[in-house]
Amino acid sequence: MTTFTFTRTDNSIVSRWWWTVDRWAIIALTMLIVMGMVLTLAASPAVAERIGVDPFHFVRRQIAFLVPSVAAMFAISLMSPEQVRRFATLAFLGTLAALVATLVIGAEIKGSRRWIGLGPLSVQPSEFVKPAFIVVSGWLLAERQRNPRFPGNLLSAMVYLFVVAILLMQPDFGQTILISAMWGIQLFVAGLPMVIVLVLGAIGTVGAVGAYFLLPHVASRIDRFLNPEAGDNYQIERAMDAFMSGGVWGRGPGEGTVKRILPDAHTDFIFAVAGEEFGMVACLAVVLIFAFIVLRILSRLLQENDPFVLYAGVGLTVQFGLQAFINMGVNLHLLPAKGMTLPFISYGGSSMLALAFGMGMLLALSRTRPGVGSVMGGGYR
């Protein structure tokens, strides 16, 4: 039987990838993907039965999404930082055009136009815009540091405002907050004066307050979070029932009952299914895996001398960690309700592919590379 091994003297692209990529992060990601398949298998049959399709309809579709997602993540992780920058720029232009198209041809669902139909599939362009934007913004900020005459900060702000304007026109306030947080942390890491950071934070706060008074659906969600009796909190209440029912060790695989009446049990509230069937121990394991990935990659990035790699990598890491935090916070009623998937665990084609797209770039940027440029004069190798 033939075996495949990589030696440090092997100069093939896959061998170089193997010896430079963060293998511990890949192991942790693999664990998340396996957990996601197990939880999809646990949560989705009840949802499928409720809507009248085959019990394993969502499981098969998740596998169909997973295969190209993993392949894309691997292929992108082989790239150099310069290739990542070029790839993200092209992807950003394409996904930005798709984001604009949602305002014209997007399907209206619950008062928002966020999806574009592609035959039997539906794609949410905003999911793909996030990682592409953060890499493009990281490049602009890094180029400004390399060449003080280059208006990188201004261009980054203009691109940010354009993306946010389209998201608010859909409207999608949740994605707007997420992108704003990613961009704000990028600016902080890039060394923007604290006065400007505080001014931008104040503007964001004013915007959030304005959204509360001007957008009824935003006000409704915040009111229901602060006062559960102010409106319909059915999914949140059922999610809390699931956690209480599961206790420390859970009811056991397949023994959960709340998933049968929880509409989004396989997507936004899959963490609640984990709590009921596998208990608090499994939920803590999920939290620790996410924390490990974020801290592990940040520790590698903070040793980086190339400003582009640092800014883009930090932004992508924040996206990954913050999205997981928001999803779990909503499930536990620690944050206002927001439809956001749990990375690599929730069911969803656009989410899975977009996360693989972003994580592939993050794995590529966090690879060990000898001879990177300095922060003040670094090039992109």
UniProtKB/TrEMBL annotation:
<keyword id="KW-0808">Transferase</keyword>
<dbReference type="GO" id="GO:0008955">
    <property type="term" value="F:peptidoglycan glycosyltransferase activity"/>
</dbReference>
<keyword id="KW-0472">Membrane</keyword>
<feature type="transmembrane region" description="Helical">
    <location>
        <begin position="24"/>
        <end position="43"/>
    </location>
</feature>
<feature type="transmembrane region" description="Helical">
    <location>
        <begin position="278"/>
        <end position="298"/>
    </location>
</feature>
<feature type="transmembrane region" description="Helical">
    <location>
        <begin position="87"/>
        <end position="107"/>
    </location>
</feature>
<dbReference type="InterPro" id="IPR013437">
    <property type="entry name" value="FtsW"/>
</dbReference>
<dbReference type="GO" id="GO:0008360">
    <property type="term" value="P:regulation of cell shape"/>
</dbReference>
<dbReference type="GO" id="GO:0015648">
    <property type="term" value="F:lipid-linked peptidoglycan transporter activity"/>
</dbReference>
<dbReference type="Pfam" id="PF01098">
    <property type="entry name" value="FTSW_RODA_SPOVE"/>
</dbReference>
<dbReference type="GO" id="GO:0005886">
    <property type="term" value="C:plasma membrane"/>
</dbReference>
<feature type="transmembrane region" description="Helical">
    <location>
        <begin position="150"/>
        <end position="169"/>
    </location>
</feature>
<feature type="transmembrane region" description="Helical">
    <location>
        <begin position="63"/>
        <end position="81"/>
    </location>
</feature>
<keyword id="KW-0328">Glycosyltransferase</keyword>
<keyword id="KW-0133">Cell shape</keyword>
<keyword id="KW-0573">Peptidoglycan synthesis</keyword>
<keyword id="KW-0131">Cell cycle</keyword>
<keyword id="KW-0812">Transmembrane</keyword>
<comment type="similarity">
    <text>Belongs to the SEDS family. FtsW subfamily.</text>
</comment>
<feature type="transmembrane region" description="Helical">
    <location>
        <begin position="344"/>
        <end position="365"/>
    </location>
</feature>
<keyword id="KW-0132">Cell division</keyword>
<comment type="pathway">
    <text>Cell wall biogenesis; peptidoglycan biosynthesis.</text>
</comment>
<protein>
    <recommendedName>
        <fullName>Probable peptidoglycan glycosyltransferase FtsW</fullName>
        <ecNumber>2.4.99.28</ecNumber>
    </recommendedName>
</protein>
<dbReference type="GO" id="GO:0009252">
    <property type="term" value="P:peptidoglycan biosynthetic process"/>
</dbReference>
<keyword id="KW-1003">Cell membrane</keyword>
<dbReference type="InterPro" id="IPR001182">
    <property type="entry name" value="FtsW/RodA"/>
</dbReference>
<keyword id="KW-0961">Cell wall biogenesis/degradation</keyword>
<dbReference type="GO" id="GO:0032153">
    <property type="term" value="C:cell division site"/>
</dbReference>
<feature type="transmembrane region" description="Helical">
    <location>
        <begin position="189"/>
        <end position="215"/>
    </location>
</feature>
<dbReference type="GO" id="GO:0051301">
    <property type="term" value="P:cell division"/>
</dbReference>
<dbReference type="GO" id="GO:0071555">
    <property type="term" value="P:cell wall organization"/>
</dbReference>
<keyword id="KW-1133">Transmembrane helix</keyword>
<feature type="transmembrane region" description="Helical">
    <location>
        <begin position="310"/>
        <end position="332"/>
    </location>
</feature>
